[in-house]
Automatic annotation (TrEMBL):
Source organism of the structure: Cucurbita moschata (Winter crookneck squash)
Membrane topology type: Single-pass membrane protein
Protein name: O-fucosyltransferase family protein
Pfam families (UniProt xref): O-FucT
Pathway linked to the protein: Glycan metabolism
Coiled-coil regions listed in the entry: none
A GO molecular-function descriptor: glycosyltransferase activity
Membership in a protein family: Belongs to the glycosyltransferase GT106 family.
CDD domains: O-FucT_plant
UniProt-listed InterPro entries: FucosylTrfase_pln (IPR024709), GDP-Fuc_O-FucTrfase (IPR019378), GT106_glycosyltransferase (IPR052272)
Name of encoding gene: LOC111463266
GO biological-process terms attached to the record: fucose metabolic process
The keyword Glycosyltransferase is annotated on this UniProt entry: yes
Tagged with keyword Transmembrane: yes
């Protein structure tokens, strides 16, 4: 009896301890039990750090050698293709009498807002209206409240466009009531919220002009992607490009910081004493032959993209589960890609290239381990663990943090739009630009560098996906396929097709034959 009671006591005690452990387990490992809205896929990826998925190729890539001839061809600028920018305005065409004031409220990230600003100028021109400097909404993801004037040089903007439209920094006193808060509290007669995506010029003349004529002001929201790319006068198309490529200059301190980063990339041994003390590794490359060349890699590999792609990135079941949950929270499962297998997605080029894969693509293209690589990205899904393979291939890789002092970075820290603006500026002034996957930054940079006739590598996503699925491919065959598959994807002029964006394909509307 005593023995039985003792056993029961021990059993009950063990059960009680187990119960306490179960209750306290979420406290010590909250990531497993937090609500889906707060779950972070990167947590799972850190527990299950993925090993290189292409070890065979990686081993060969780490032993690669490039000849001086190969390097010369690789870094050679684009030859003159017989095209030149053609966005010059005719003599001043600002109307004597404005129909009223146009306000637009722009959401999205920096590059989406940039396109919205260009469209706003075009709509103001179509309506013979005065444009109020656009209002940039606070981004709900990055919580960045930067205004137009925090990002862009407003005086330059107004001056460049002074012969095209009338622009004011703020409304006159009689219209001071027309604010974002005013339109958020009730239905207002002066707000236009029914603009369809890619609306025609006639739509604005029929629906917005009467509002202007009745009230002297019209506020259009939402406004992203609200102007067509088709059936517009040449004057309007060229004006959009003039805004994008000539009027939208970043504020001086962004340009100054961008120039400083470019200088440190081109002259790594020429640092101030303070910079050398903070970053001694940055002074190890001697440079007696003038400025060095550098590549900018836009690594768009954040958790939103990883989840939305529905692709497998090698993090195992935990990562798949985390991404599936995150996908459900953000898009309630309405993700087209989730209908396909990983193999189908990769063969169609619908999976973003991982840091490892874009590194292998660059290595196969001829970039050696002495290549100066600037990493333009916001936050990489999986953190440093994901980037380590890329860094092993390109040990001279830098980014904003590695190239700046604490005081320099403090000017833009926590401001996603300003951080993106610095990356945009450095990307535009690089010798070569490449993006790991399509997106707003990729599209904006392809268009801007096409306008300037600068070398830009557009990864062949379908080819790359198929090559990476071939686990038996040897390095020489992989390298040959990559080189052959990208020889016509280095910045050659591509004419815009119907419904394509003028900001990605500025020819032939804004880039004309000599």
């Amino acid at each position: 009896m005593v023995l039985v009671m003792g056993l029961n006591f021990q059993s009950n005690r063990a059960g009680a301890l187990a119960g306490v452990f179960v209750l306290l387990f979420p406290v010590f490992l909250p990531g497993l039990f937090s609500p889906l809205g707060n779950a972070s896929p990167s947590t799972f990826s850190e527990w299950n750090t993925p090993k290189p998925r292409h070890s065979r190729l990686l081993k060969s890539a780490l032993q690669r050698r490039s000849s001086k001839l190969d390097q010369s061809d690789l870094w050679a600028p684009l030859a003159d293709q017989g095209w030149k920018p053609c966005v010059a305005s005719k003599a001043s065409s600002v109307p004597w009498k404005s129909e009223g004031y146009i306000q637009v409220f722009l959401d999205g990230g920096l590059n989406q807002q940039r396109m919205g600003i260009c469209d706003a100028v075009a709509v103001a021109k179509i309506l013979n209206a005065t444009l109020v400097i656009p209002y940039l909404e606070t981004n709900p993801v990055w919580k960045d409240s930067s205004s137009f004037m925090d990002i862009f040089d407003v005086d330059h903007f107004i001056n460049v466009l002074k012969d095209d439209i009338s622009i004011v920094k703020e409304l006159p006193a009689e219209f001071s009531w027309s604010t974002r808060e005013y339109y958020a509290t009730a239905i207002r007669a002066t707000r236009v919220k029914t603009a369809p995506v890619h609306a025609s010029a006639n739509w604005y003349l029929e629906n917005v002009l009467p509002v202007l004529q009745s009230y002297g002001i019209a506020a259009i929201a939402p406004f992203s992607h609200r102007l067509t790319f088709e059936n517009l006068p040449d004057e309007i198309q060229r004006l959009r490009c003039k805004v994008n490529f000539q009027a939208l200059f970043f504020v001086p301190h962004i340009r100054a910081l961008g120039d400083a980063l470019i200088g440190r990339l081109r002259y790594p041994s020429n640092k101030s004493g303070a910079k050398e003390a903070n970053h001694p590794s940055m002074t190890t490359v001697a440079n007696d032959q003038g400025p060095l060349k550098f590549v900018v890699l836009h690594l768009r590999f954040d958790k939103d993209m990883a989840a939305h792609s529905a692709c497998d990135f090698g993090g195992g079941k935990a990562e798949k589960l985390a991404l599936a949950k995150y996908r459900q929270v953000l898009w309630q499962g309405r993700v087209l890609n989730s209908q396909f297998t990983d193999e189908e997605l990769r063969s169609q080029g619908r999976c973003p290239l991982t840091p490892e894969e874009i590194g292998l693509l660059l290595a196969a293209s001829g970039f050696d381990n002495n290549t100066r690589l600037y990493l333009a990205s916001h936050k990489v899904y999986g953190g440093e663990a994901r980037i380590s393979t890329l860094r092993s291939l390109f040990p001279l890789m830098e980014d904003k943090k590695s190239l700046t002092s604490g005081s320099e970075l403090a000017q833009i820290k926590g401001k996603a739009s300003l951080l993106a603006a610095v990356d945009y500026y450095v990307s535009l002034h690089s010798d070569i630009f490449i993006s790991a996957s399509p997106g707003n930054m990729h599209n904006a940079m392809v268009g801007h560098r096409t306008y300037e006739n600068l070398k830009t590598i557009r990864p062949n996503m379908a080819l790359s996906g198929q090559l990476f699925m071939n686990k038996s491919i040897i390095w020489s065959d992989f390298q040959q396929a990559i080189v052959e598959g990208h020889k016509n994807r280095l910045g050659q002029i591509r004419l815009r097709k119907p419904k394509q964006s003028i900001y990605t394909y500025p020819a032939p509307d804004c880039v004309c034959h000599n």
